Amino acid sequence: xxxxxxxxxxxxxxxxxxxxxxxxxxxxxxxxxxxxxxxxxxxxxxxxxxxxxxxxxxxxxxxxxxxxxxxxxxxxxxxxxxxxxxxxxxxxxxxxxxxx
Length: 100
Hints:
Elements: H1 2-8, H2 10-30, H3 33-68, E1 77-79, E2 88-90
Antiparallel strand pairs: 1-2
Helix pairs in contact: 1-3, 2-3
């Protein structure tokens, strides 16, 4: 995932800004709208390539986050509860469990 984020997405992002700075803006300043439109098409392609890599990174990050999230409790938890006596059992989702 790091390689995709740092390396694979960097080249199209750099290309996008290069096209903006070196092609589109100079063409607009000089009044050459055809050249600016051609540059815009190249910038759009670079943006889409960058965005495709980022979309893959997001899917991977979401998958990794789900893998490390704590699974829900499926059995009773033994608690020492001062307000309910020396000890008590409670089920996940119960009022006592909400104080965990």
